[in-house]
Design brief:
mainly alpha
Length: 81
């Protein structure tokens, strides 16, 4: 199955402007890894999701941007179930 995922806007509050590229790269890498493991049932029949609230996630002080991006990706992927 081919899945095309387009995230038009990812809104993150409270992060340094310089971290945005590292975070977005980590989101892309983790989503790629998650989709390689399986497509969520909500997408298995095809179709389009106009808007998705990925919910929230917890961070610890000093958390690296790669780990933050991975957490965001897991929240997005989890929101697709």
């Amino acid at each position: 199955m081919n899945v095309e995922l387009h995230i038009e806007e990812l809104v993150l509050h409270g992060f340094e402007r310089g971290d945005r590229h590292h975070i977005s790269e980590a989101v892309q890498q983790e989503l790629t890894r998650l989709f390689a493991q399986g497509v969520p049932p909500s997408l298995a029949q095809g179709g389009e999701i106009g808007r998705l609230d990925g919910g929230g996630f917890e961070m610890t002080a000093g958390m690296q941007s790669g780990a933050i991006g991975a957490q965001i990706a897991r929240s997005i992927y989890g929101g697709l179930d």
